[in-house]
Design goal:
The protein is α+β, with helices and mostly antiparallel strands. The chain is about 30% helix and about 15% strand. The protein has one domain: Alpha-Beta Plaits, CATH 3.30.70.20. It has 4 helices and 5 strands, in the order βαβαββααβ. The relative contact order is 0.29.
Length: about 110
């Protein structure tokens, strides 16, 4: 089991979740298509998309969930029905990144 970032993160990318995460399992997913689909403008210019959690790197500690100011993070088996496609998005995005892309898109508390 792991945690999943869902639609409320689109256009927000607050990163409070990253600050408390004991591992580096969060990644940036720049996607204008996600913003368009959700009808959301980015909070900061050019900051499209959302954060995603790498399912193989998440240690299921739960530290990130209460820190998310937009309540976008859920345990994978507790994602609301209307947000279930974000489980696949988190998985496909991070598994689809090459090693170089993982390095480039990793979001850490040091960023």
């Amino acid at each position: 089991m792991a945690y999943v970032v869902t639609e409320p993160c689109i256009g927000t990318k607050d990163r409070s979740c990253v600050e408390v995460c004991p591992v580096d399992c969060f990644y940036n997913y720049d996607s204008q298509e996600l913003n368009a689909k959700a009808g959301k403008e980015p909070a900061k210019a050019g900051d499209f998309g959302m954060l995603v959690i790498h399912q193989d790197e998440c240690i299921h500690c739960g530290a990130c969930e209460p820190e998310c100011p937009v309540e976008a993070i859920y345990e994978d088996d507790e994602v609301p029905e209307d947000q279930r496609d974000y489980i696949e998005i988190n998985t496909k995005v991070t598994e689809g990144y090459s090693d170089d892309e993982l390095d480039k898109n990793r979001v850490t508390s040091r960023d």
